[in-house]
Design goal:
By secondary structure, this protein is α+β, with helices and mostly antiparallel strands. Helices cover 31% and strands 31% of the residues. Adenosine-5'-diphosphate is lined by residues 13, 15, 17, 19, 37, 39-45.
Length: 413
């Protein structure tokens, strides 16, 4: 068990590709952290730097309180599970799991007990004599997890471990990995490009783009308060809708002008602060609304149905509205022919407001002072003894809260 501190981590590959830039965060002992983002955003590079498989170009990495920048992988007390399982093809499942322990010269009985215990937890006891080619993808991935488990590492690193599995198996393995994490009580760092995996598995999610952290938060925080347009569009299925609008003052307070229509945001009480309303008065902003927040009514914004996808329990309406495409997620009872005109209703309280230039979510509070903290995590944190006493836990919680706010602001200001 261990916390991980990543402080201004940077990776420049030999071909001058800047894969990771100024990555800072505190991963708490026993936390399940998911790094998520599109392919090429630097997730695997972070994981490989933690594992010691990739040299760190700048910044500092601590596992527990030990600085790890120059410590070889075998001395980092980590175990890594890869997408392609990386099992030895000529060895049985048993031997694949036992091999690392044999190399460490552990007594035979101890190895046997560990392998059989892992096999029992992963439900692969009857596969122990099989070689990888006689196993399904899901079974191979269990063996790979078992091989990591028997080492009893302080940190589990998982790099897209479910990507090679079919959709159904992925769902069941997902919940098994969550249970495994709870059972082992070990720190997990998990990389995926799949936002559903991130949302369902992580205690906290780190959303990345182009080597830069966009937001760190719990799944609920990232979903309900995305820090910027990128996070808003990346997290959630179907993705959030975006509409260009102008914020105007009217007799009743404020309204949002969308094409030829106006949406009052004063009637239900504006979600934007008075300061923000004054600052953005007369400005173009981008509105965001989740597809499941849209409803149809007698009145509202006129929109044309492009396609209606009836999925049984729900219907997705793809609409043309104010010159942009919108998706509405409606009950399965809704049917609409293409070309039909409908009126969509947008509840002002469910709107997200983004600065058009920076993409920043205007509902996220500004905390410039907190941003400074991230480049200098509390020094006591790194000097604390290994045993997780209440003081350490409170410091970690403090650092975590700072990191979360700081990153949110740092990337959106
Ligand atoms: P992800 O895991 O998010 O898909 P990676 O961490 O694998 O992203 O890669 C981040 C960036 O670094 C990409 O632009 C990728 O092409 C580049 N990259 C990864 N590995 C190497 C390497 N060994 N040499 C050069 N560039 C690399």
């Amino acid at each position: 068990m261990a916390s991980i501190t990543l402080k201004n981590l940077k990776k420049v590959y030999d071909n001058q590709v800047l894969a990771v830039s100024d990555f800072s965060m505190e991963i708490q002992d026993q936390e399940f952290i998911v790094l998520v983002g599109p392919s090429g955003c630097g997730k695997s590079t972070i994981l490989r730097m933690i594992a010691g498989l990739e040299e760190i170009s700048g910044g500092e990495l601590y596992i527990g309180r030990q600085k790890m920048n120059d410590v070889p992988p075998r001395d980092r007390d980590i175990a890594m599970v890869f997408q392609n399982y990386a099992l030895y093809p000529h060895m049985t499942a048993y031997k694949n799991m036992a091999f690392g322990l044999e190399n460490r010269k552990l007594p035979k009985e101890q190895i046997d007990a560990k392998v059989r215990e892992a096999a029992r937890i992963l439900d692969i006891e009857d596969l122990l004599d099989r070689k990888p080619k006689a196993m399904s993808g899901g079974q191979r991935q269990r063996v790979a997890l078992g091989r990591a488990m028997v080492r009893e590492p302080a940190v589990f690193l998982l790099d897209e471990p479910l990507s090679n599995l079919d959709a159904k198996l992925r769902t069941s393995m997902r919940s098994e990995i969550i249970k495994l994490h709870q059972r082992l009580g070990t720190t997990f760092v998990y990389v995926t490009h799949d936002q559903i995996e991130a949302m369902t598995m992580g205690d906290r999610i780190v959303v990345m783009k182009d080597g830069v952290i966009q937001q760190i938060g719990t799944p609920a925080e990232v979903y309900h308060r995305p820090a910027n347009l990128f996070v808003a569009g990346f997290i959630g299925t179907p993705p959030m809708n975006f509409l260009p609008a102008v914020l105007e003052e009217d007799a009743a307070g404020y309204c949002l002008r969308l094409g030829g229509s106006a949406l009052s945001i004063s009637a239900a009480g504006s979600p934007l602060s008075q300061e923000c309303l004054a600052r953005y008065r007369g400005c173009r902003i981008t509105l965001g609304i989740r597809p499941d927040q849209l409803t149809l009514g007698e009145e509202g914004l006129p929109a044309q149905v492009d396609v209606a996808e009836a999925l049984g329990g729900e219907t997705y309406l793809y609409l043309e509205c104010c010159g942009v495409r919108l998706t509405a997620k409606l009950p399965g009872t809704v049917t609409m022919p293409p070309g039909a005109t409908v009126h969509i209703q947008i509840p002002p309280q469910q709107l997200h407001f983004f600065d058009q230039e920076s993409g920043r979510n205007l509902l996220c509070p500004s905390a410039a002072s907190a941003a400074a903290v991230i480049s200098e995590p509390p020094s006591e944190l790194l000097a604390e003894p290994q045993s997780p006493g209440p003081k350490k836990r409170s410091l970690l919680a403090k650092a975590k809260a700072f990191a979360r706010t700081a990153h949110r602001e740092k990337t959106t200001d």
